[in-house]
Design the sequence.
């Protein structure tokens, strides 16, 4: 069963075709600059040269038409006809309180998914446009929506209710939702598998550290808390996002310093975090290099970042009454031995011992604690696409 996984953003679209008999990804592709001058598609198949198409891509329907063409291309494609695509799994950022699990997408379901748009105005609308375009071009192929928020719907009320007037929750749905759920679910389950343990017996802190960063407390296989909130702006500091700060800063900037709300929004989402403090870049590698060359603000940015992650790990170990394992994933978590080391510094009292030599690995599944360590530390590369494909196949098979 070949499953197409689509992650549709406002001007970009990532895709993979996964052969679910082996769970191998057959092809990975990216369409960029949809609706903007200079649009292009790049498709990668292992062992072959990259396939790049530069052409006008007016909208998402155009983009998906191009993707389907690239998949069946005689020279660069991986399948003979579109009939080989058994199902499509779509990433949807926000499923609100309604979706605690993935769902088969019908016209009717799509309408209720659209009701979640108000909660994620930047993210959900492009996801839905992508779904609609696929439905039009592949009317007979079953489709599934997989939500970033779903895994966190198991959080207890004490974790997700904001200390604001309760009516704001009742009337507007203002609460913590959490994001990166597909990733937290994947790495926590993979960890249990690698450890040879039943996930029901484990207390895990999962650290998804990429451009966006979030941590989750996963107890018995369920998310009981996570650091992102009503939107993906909350929690630990990120590449360009501030993470949680005193909300009074916003009023101060607007009332005392003449900022507009739009400027503040831009500042918190795009100009803060690692970029904001360092003044160098949002890319962790650039900031690390600058710090190594003596740039004090770059060093400070890393220090603040590691401090935030460390404090969050400790908090989740606290609410779970101890931990059995910590997992690092995503671009920084999988690749940066420095971040893993610094984020764990001082937390040895939780019961782990980091193995500095093992910690030097990059991008592969590896235990990085010592054999004697009671609490285990792992690096586990995330695979959100596979998780989406798995959910898709499971739901389609049960239809
Ligand atoms: P996204 O959240 O957009 O999926 P990624 O998970 O790809 O992002 O993470 C991107 C981040 O990972 C960037 O800050 C990048 O600098 C960092 N990163 C990638 N490779 C390395 C590396 N070898 N060492 C340190 N950081 C890395």
Sequence:
């Amino acid at each position: 069963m070949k499953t197409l996984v689509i992650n549709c953003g406002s001007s970009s679209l990532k895709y993979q075709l996964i052969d679910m008999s082996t769970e191998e990804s057959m092809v990975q592709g990216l369409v960029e600059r949809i609706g903007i001058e200079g649009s292009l598609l790049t498709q990668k198949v292992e062992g072959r040269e990259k396939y790049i198409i530069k052409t006008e891509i007016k909208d998402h329907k155009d983009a998906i038409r191009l993707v389907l063409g690239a998949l069946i291309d005689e020279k660069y494609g991986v399948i003979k006809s579109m009939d080989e695509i058994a199902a499509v799994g779509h990433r949807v950022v926000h499923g609100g309180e309604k979706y605690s699990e993935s769902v088969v997408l019908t016209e009717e379901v799509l309408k209720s998914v659209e009701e979640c748009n108000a909660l994620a105005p930047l993210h959900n609308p492009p996801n839905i446009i992508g779904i609609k375009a696929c439905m039009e071009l592949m009317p007979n192929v079953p489709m599934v929506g997989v939500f970033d928020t779903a895994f966190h719907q198991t959080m207890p009320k004490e974790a997700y209710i904001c200390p604001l007037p309760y009516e704001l929750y009742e009337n507007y749905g203002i609460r913590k939702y959490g994001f990166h759920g597909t990733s937290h679910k994947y790495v926590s389950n993979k960890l249990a598998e690698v450890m040879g343990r039943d996930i029901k017996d484990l207390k895990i802190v999962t650290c998804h550290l990429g451009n966006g960063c979030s941590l989750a407390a996963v107890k018995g296989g369920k998310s009981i808390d996570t650091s992102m909130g009503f939107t993906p702006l909350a929690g630990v500091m990120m590449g360009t996002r501030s993470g949680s700060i005193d909300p009074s800063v916003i009023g101060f900037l607007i009332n005392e310093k003449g900022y507009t709300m739009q400027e503040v929004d831009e500042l918190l989402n795009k100009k803060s975090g690692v970029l904001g403090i360092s003044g160098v870049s949002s890319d962790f590698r650039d900031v690390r290099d600058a710090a190594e060359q003596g740039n004090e603000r770059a060093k400070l940015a890393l220090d603040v970042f590691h401090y935030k992650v460390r404090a969050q790990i400790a908090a989740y170990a606290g609410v779970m009454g101890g931990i059995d394992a910590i997992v690092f994933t995503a671009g920084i978590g999988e690749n940066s031995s420095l971040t893993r080391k610094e984020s764990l510094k001082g937390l040895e009292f939780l019961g782990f011992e980091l193995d500095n030599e093992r910690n030097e690995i990059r991008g592969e599944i590896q235990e990085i604690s010592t054999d004697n360590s009671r609490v285990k530390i792992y690096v586990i590369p995330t695979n959100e696409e596979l998780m989406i494909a798995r959910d898709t196949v499971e739901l389609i098979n049960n239809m």
Remarks:
- The CA atoms of residues 122 and 277 lie 25 Å apart.
- The pocket of adenosine-5'-diphosphate is lined by residues 210-212, 239, 283-285, 330-332, 335-336, 362 (CB under 6 Å).
- The domain at 181-379 is CATH 3.30.420.40 (Nucleotidyltransferase; domain 5).
